[in-house]
Specification:
heterodimer; A: about 900 residues; alpha/beta; Helicase, Ruva Protein, domain 3; Rossmann fold; 4 domains; 30 helices; about 45% helix; elongated; disordered N terminus; B: about 300 residues; ten-stranded mixed sheet; two-stranded antiparallel ribbon; 11 helices; 12 strands; about 40% helix; about 20% strand
């Protein structure tokens, strides 16, 4: 490789771009205000018409229609959640307030609490009414049961039963006396003893009795004992009868007291049959268990001194557990669940530990976000949701069955073996809105069949909005709204214009503005801080620029490191002179949110061979598939243009010098092709210029990503060494619209010290880089001999002849023509090993146009993949080429 | 008969010098004490609830009369005899029959005695009377009658200890009322000694003793004592007034003004009901009173469902 000066003649190369094309600047005077304080706050959403329409459609179609739930997708930070909460709030306000739901005790099956639906606001009122009722009964029932009247009645019943028992015992004792038996009270009950002469007979006396007498006594004893047993059985029955009569007396006594209080409530809730049925059950239960209304402290003794539930606990079954009651007049609910665990979404049941056992009842049932959002909208973060176990399946079940059923993980996994309530499911009518990034949407769509059925409406938020005079004004109002809502200083028109310019730069497009509201809020806040630092009352353009520069400084460690390495010669980058087979390529490095342009030296060598263009990055497995694709394309371009009728007798190699990491993207293919053409033509390339762009097989230059960062990366290196007017960057024409360069770059261009050229073909690029005409093919298929193409053609011809001369003896030695395939036959003269080239699976996966700016906003992360390996291909949406 | 006597448990209120502490609520009339000579009250204690109620009532009476209390627990020998019979069966409250055995009966009686002792000790801790506890084995009625010989007043439950808890009048009570025993107090577990107290005063010596005891029990309340003076068609009003005057004079030292009421023969026939109508809550009566010729003492006591003290 030799280093020479560029030739003198310059055959009409593309002229450097006009300064106006390097960046689009917002004109503050056209915004029509002095400071942002004059602007009306912005209520509409800028440039998200597609997403807004989807959102409104989903809201309009109603929760009753299956599956028209919403997945709101888009990159994080563009304000999806804020936007949808605001829009859904507007829609929800037009809808009626949903009914209230409460759980009540099921007196027939305690573990299956009943759900009752009530008009909004009434559940809370019912809860209050029941509390008052129970409080009143807690006073009335003990008073009634302790009344003299009732005690007399109880005493009367007990006395009657005692007398009945005494009379029967006395009669039995008297009857036994006639048979010579005496009824004795024993430690454990009663017994009959035979007596003689008033004394209980001894065994000796008994044995001396005649057999007849013995038998008579024994028969009499058996008969008396049977009668006694029978009496004791009757006594047991009488005792039960006594208890029943006391209970019935209590019931009769309390009937009127309980009945009158419950009747008051019954009249109030006369229109609600389920409530009336519950009142009936409550009244019946109260009359069945008046003892539960004992006074505090009147705790009956229990076996083993186990504590009894307090009176309050015993009466808990009469409570009303309001699961949801948002009241009236608030419209439908819009609920955003920040922490979407299973318990928080579908509800849960709390447990209480009592003596080592976990207990619960219907009062411990807690509703989830589904209950709160019933009748309205439930907004959930898809990523958070999917990170929580069980909740995704539970949510789908709820949407599918249209029932809010409270499930617990512990129950599902049988962790807790205690009896848990099975609350009656509540009918569900909710519109679920998932918010997430696009990758999640595509993954769910691909992998979860239910998802497609349940979330039919995607609301795709754009990364950017179209830039126009109108949208710039709207953007200005957005900045004003941010400043007001964040209680920041007002921005003057120039500062607002600068923020808009920054939005344009973030979009990497002069025709777009970034929709990344999070980043814009950060910028506005930081600019306000800059103004505060200098004690200003209004944020000026210098503050915005200061904020941008401060941020650049904060994240500038790597950029400075690169510049230092270049300046110290650690990384070899020439910015002056001309070298054969060597070109300054440009790559982009992504560090978090920051993207950084970096010049890289690309070199090419050419020698005689069998049509191989060796991509060294590929050989050492540092090159990604897109990069390899670019190299293969340029190989085919060479073969097609210069060796159409004969084999390409070339062995060339391409390498990114001093590149030690993985590289991907085809933006270097133009640079690589130029380096290769330089090596073949031995025309030196100007090192004051850098080149970026991809080429197709016809030599046309195509758009790449990160054009601004790349230009600025080379500019920074040149500026460090001193700009002399020779420096500049060659870019594809189709990237001109994306130029949003820094002010210092634009200023240098304006001063004639730095240039940007836009090319449409490799011929234009090589002409610019070598200052030698590329040359057009003549009618005879030959290029002018002095042109680059002519020199390349001549070189390839020479190589072909040499190769033919070298291969002739071999051909003579071998009479079999099929032994050596024709060099032109094996299609692409690339380096892909055979198995990889035939990899059908790879063909099914196609990365989005990573380098192509034809769809720059398609996938934001695609730009990152330009020259770095940013994400694995299996996370990219699958596109069937058929 | 083997008497299983144990060391008597002494109430904490008994003084070291052997004298009992005086009850501040008592009338302090030493004459009454001297004439009645009720210095030792005997009460039978079984392990039932009824027994505990009787013990409490007896202690209260002893306190009022400043008497010593002798508590007797009888281990029923009839039960042992019964248990020795091969065919003896016990029917419990669940109507289940169970074979009785001597060994288990012995254990049950011992356990009963232990519980009775515990009951006594527990109750005696709160008394302000001198009290002793004794356990004997034998027939309940006979042992009580035997022990009654050394007592001035025998306290007996209305229901018999050996039979049901609420038989109209137990065998023991009947036996004591019919025997030559000293004064007998018949109580039930439902009624403690309350006022007003009634007595029947006909001027006889026995009725005079009854009146003296009634005065002692009535306390200082003017309306706490009712003196029923029987009269027949031949009784002159002068005689009635004289008796009333006598009663009033007897009560005067105790600062009591009794309500004296004439008791007609018809009322004697239905004395328990008449006493109820008069609002009386207790009766002190002479065993030999003439009125019991018309209605037997046991029947009267049985029909009057309040404490009755029969003096002789």
């Amino acid at each position: 490789m030799s280093s020479t000066s560029p030739t003198s003649s310059l055959p009409s190369p593309p002229r450097a771009l006009d300064v106006s094309a390097l960046a689009r600047r917002c004109d503050p005077s056209r915004l029509g205000f002095t400071t942002s304080a004059e602007l009306e706050p912005l209520t509409e959403v800028i440039g998200q018409a597609r997403a807004v329409e989807a959102l409104r459609f989903s809201a309009r179609i109603g929760a009753g229609v299956d599956g028209f739930n919403l997945f709101v997708m888009g990159p994080s930070g563009i304000g999806k959640r804020t936007t949808i909460l605001r829009l859904l709030g507007d829609e929800a306000a037009k809808l009626p307030a949903p009914p209230a739901w409460c759980y009540v005790h099921n007196f027939d099956a305690a573990h299956q609490p009943r759900a009752i639906c009530l008009p909004p606001g009434l559940a809370v009122e019912l809860q209050r009414d029941m509390r008052v009722l129970i409080d009143e009964l807690r006073a009335a029932i003990p008073a009634a049961l302790e009344s003299q009247e009732f005690q007399n009645r109880v005493g009367e019943i007990q006395e009657e039963l005692k007398e009945r028992q005494e009379t029967a015992l006395t009669a039995l004792a008297a009857e036994a006396e006639t048979q010579g038996l005496r009824l004795l009270r024993t430690p454990g009950g009663f017994a009959f003893a035979p007596v003689t002469n008033g004394e209980v007979i001894t065994p000796e006396q008994f044995n001396q009795l005649p057999e007849d007498e013995k038998k008579r006594i024994q028969d009499a004893l058996e008969s008396a004992q049977e009668k006694l047993a029978d009496l004791m059985r009757r006594v047991i029955g009488w005792a039960k009868e006594g208890r029943d009569r006391v209970k019935e007396a209590g019931r009769t006594l309390l009937q009127s007291a309980v009945g009158s209080l419950v009747d008051d409530l019954r009249r109030k809730y006369a229109d609600h049959a389920k409530i009336l049925a519950h009142f009936d059950a409550v009244a019946k239960d109260i009359l069945e268990h008046p003892e539960d209304f004992r006074r505090d402290g009147d705790t009956p003794p229990t076996p083993f001194e186990m504590p009894m539930p307090s009176a309050k606990q015993a009466l808990a079954r009469y409570q009303i557990n309001v699961v949801v009651d948002a009241g009236t007049g608030a419209g439908a609910p819009v609920v955003y669940e920040e922490h979407p665990t299973l318990a928080n979404v579908v509800g849960h049941t709390d447990y209480e530990s009592r003596f080592g056992a976990l207990t619960t009842d219907f009062t411990q049932i807690k509703g989830g976000a589904l209950h709160r959002a019933n009748g309205g909208f439930l907004v959930l973060d898809a990523r958070k949701l999917l990170m929580q176990p069980f909740v995704w399946e539970a949510l789908k079940r709820a949407i599918h069955s249209r029932e809010a059923r409270i499930e617990s993980v512990a129950q599902m996994l049988s962790i807790i073996s205690t009896v848990a309530p099975e609350p009656e499911p509540i009918p569900l009518s909710v519109k679920v809105v998932l918010v997430g990034d696009r990758t999640l949407y595509y993954l769910l769509h691909e992998l979860d069949p239910d998802f497609r059925q349940l979330f039919k409406v995607p609301a795709d938020f754009d990364d950017c909005v179209a830039r126009s005079d109108q949208s710039e004004v709207l953007y200005a109002r957005l900045v004003a709204t941010m400043a007001k809502s964040l209680q920041l200083r007002a921005f003057d028109a120039a500062a607002v214009a600068r923020v808009i310019d920054r939005a344009g730069r973030m979009a990497d497009d002069s025709l777009k503005l970034s929709a990344h509201m999070g980043a814009m809020v950060d910028l506005v806040r930081e600019a306000d801080d800059q103004a505060a630092q200098r004690g200003a009352t209004v944020v000026a353009v210098a503050d915005v620029e200061g904020a941008i520069e401060a941020r650049r400084r904060r994240s500038g460690r790597i950029r400075e490191l690169i510049l230092e390495q270049v300046s110290r010669g650690t990384v070899l980058i020439d910015t002056a002179g001309a070298v054969v087979g060597q070109v300054n390529g440009l790559s982009v490095l992504a560090f978090g949110e920051e993207m950084l342009g970096q010049p890289s030296r690309i070199t090419a060598t050419a020698r005689i061979g069998s049509g191989d263009v060796i991509d060294i990055e590929r050989e050492v497995r540092l090159g990604g598939p897109t990069h390899s694709k670019g190299v293969l394309i340029l190989s085919n371009f060479l073969a097609q243009r210069y060796a159409g009728h004969k084999p390409l007798a070339l062995s060339a190699s391409l390498v990114f010098e001093q590149s030690y990491g993985r590289i991907d993207g085809d933006s270097a293919s133009l640079g690589e092709l130029c380096a290769l053409l330089s090596a073949l033509s031995e025309a030196p390339i100007s090192q004051a210029r850098a080149v970026t762009g991809s080429v197709n097989q016809r030599g046309q230059v195509q758009a790449i990503g990160g054009v601004n960062e790349k230009i600025e990366g080379f500019f920074d290196v040149c500026k460090q060494r001193g700009l002399d007017g020779s420096h500049g960057v060659v870019i594809p024409v189709s990237n001109v619209e994306h130029l949003m360069l820094r002010d210092d770059v634009v200023d240098a261009a304006r001063a004639g010290r730095f240039s940007v050229w836009a090319v449409t073909s490799v011929d234009e690029a090589i002409t610019l880089l070598t200052d030698i005409e590329a040359g057009e093919v003549g009618a005879d298929g030959l290029y002018p001999a002095a042109s680059i193409n002519g020199r390349v053609q001549a070189r390839l011809d020479e190589l072909f002849e040499r190769r033919r001369a070298l291969s002739k003896p071999d051909a003579d030695r071998s009479s079999a023509p099929q032994a050596a395939p024709a060099p032109a036959e094996p299609a692409p003269p690339g380096t892909l090993p055979e198995p990889e080239r035939g990899n059908g699976a790879a063909a099914m996966i196609a990365a989005p146009a990573a380098d192509a700016h034809a769809a720059p906003a398609a996938v934001a992360s695609a730009r990152i993949s330009n020259d770095t390996e940013a994400f694995p291909p299996n996370l990219v949406p699958r596109i069937d080429r058929a | 008969m083997k008497a299983g006597e144990e060391d008597a448990a002494r109430s904490e209120t008994e003084q070291p010098d052997g004298h009992s502490r005086r009850n501040p609520h008592d009338s302090g009339d030493s004459r009454i004490e001297r004439n009645l000579r009720i210095e030792r009250i005997l009460v039978a204690l079984d392990v039932s609830e009824h027994g505990r109620a009787a013990l409490a009532a007896a202690a209260e009476l002893a306190s009022r009369l400043q008497a010593k209390l002798s508590v007797l627990h009888v281990e029923d020998a009839d039960l042992l005899k019964l248990a020795a019979l091969p065919f003896a069966r016990e029917i419990d409250a669940r109507a289940a029959a169970r074979r009785l055995e001597t060994a288990s009966m012995e254990r049950a009686l011992k356990a009963g005695a232990r519980r009775a002792a515990q009951t006594f000790e527990h109750a005696a801790a709160s008394w302000r009377v001198s009290a002793s506890f004794r356990i004997v084995r034998g027939r309940v009625t006979q042992e009580l009658l035997a022990a009654a010989q050394s007592a001035d007043l025998v306290f007996v439950g209305r229901a018999g200890a050996a039979c049901s808890r609420r038989s109209p009048l137990g065998r023991t009570a009947r036996s004591l009322l019919g025997s030559n025993s000293p004064a007998v107090a018949v109580f039930s577990d439902r009624h403690a000694l309350e006022r007003p107290i009634a007595t029947v005063f006909d001027g006889s010596e026995g009725s005079r003793r009854a009146l003296e005891l009634a005065i002692a029990l009535a306390g200082e309340d003017h309306h706490s004592l009712l003196v029923a003076i029987p009269h027949s068609p031949g009784t002159s009003s002068v005689r009635l007034e004289a008796l009333a005057q006598t009663a009033t004079q007897m009560a005067a030292p105790a600062a009591i003004r009794p309500r004296c009421v004439a008791l007609s023969p018809a009322s004697v026939e239905r004395l328990p009901e008449w006493l109820h109508e008069q609002g009386c809550r207790g009766l002190v009566v002479d065993r030999g009173a003439a009125l019991f010729a018309r209605r037997p003492l046991a029947a009267t006591v049985e029909a009057f469902d309040c404490p009755v003290i029969v003096v002789r």
